Amino acid sequence: MFNKDKINKKKKSLRRKKQEGDFTNFSEDDEENETHLSNLVSNVNAGGDLFLKSLDAKLQSVYDLSGKKGHSNFHSMQNISLGVYYFEVEIISLEYNIHEYITTKRIDEFSKKYYENILHNIKAYMPSVRIGFVNSSGDLDLAIGAEKYSYAYRADGMIINDGEYKENNSFYNKGDCIGALIQMKPPRPDFLKNVNDKNSENNNECYVKYFKNGVEQKEVFIGIHEGSYHAAITLYNFAKASINFGPNFKFLSCLDNRSVRSFGEVEY
What we know:
Layout: H1 4-19, H2 28-42, E1 54-55, E2 62-66, E3 71-76, E4 83-93, H3 98-103, H4 109-120, E5 128-135, E6 150-154, E7 159-161, E8 164-166, E9 177-184, E10 207-212, E11 215-216, E12 221-222, E13 229-236, E14 240-244
Parallel strand pairs: 1-3
Antiparallel strand pairs: 2-14, 3-13, 4-9, 4-14, 5-6, 5-13, 6-7, 7-8, 9-10, 10-11, 10-12
């Protein structure tokens, strides 16, 4: 079985060669090996021994991700604080036979109540996805949207921030492609802020908006908290999705040719 620590150690050694300018010892074989190691880690099941949390958008543009029981968080290694950035997520699967999963378990008296609760409330345990952005100062272990420094669009059409929900966006399912766009501008000077909200850290022109298969959604986040943001995705209960950091997007035309950058363009 592959050992994630050993793989990451090899990747770190290869990356250090480039960062230190040691190109004399950095061969084409090293370059291929680095890509191979990245692919190896990124394509494994999130519930296995090679659980992947931080995705390097510069090493690889597309990652196929699988969730596990509960929620699994993934975010770009890169973060941005200025400009307009976009990424896409294609939904691979939101299906899972929870009955089959439970019946294959050895149910003892201690866990019987736990699994009975699932069977009586299956909807709450069905696979789902949240797509959006999380601030570097936020808690990266929480499902995105659970706190004020993260913003999410959920499969049932809800957008979520700080645990508060708004509906009206379209639901999405297997085969749909969701685009997520963030615009970050420099902080506004105090004299341009609303007097009644002068001290608010989210009184600005920064926003997050979403697209489903190229169609812009109604609900957006306007005046988001200032700071640096990672592209992020949360997978619930064995959901599967493919995240695309660009620059080859499926629905880039929906952005009206605005000056949009990909997370793969962000420097380390």
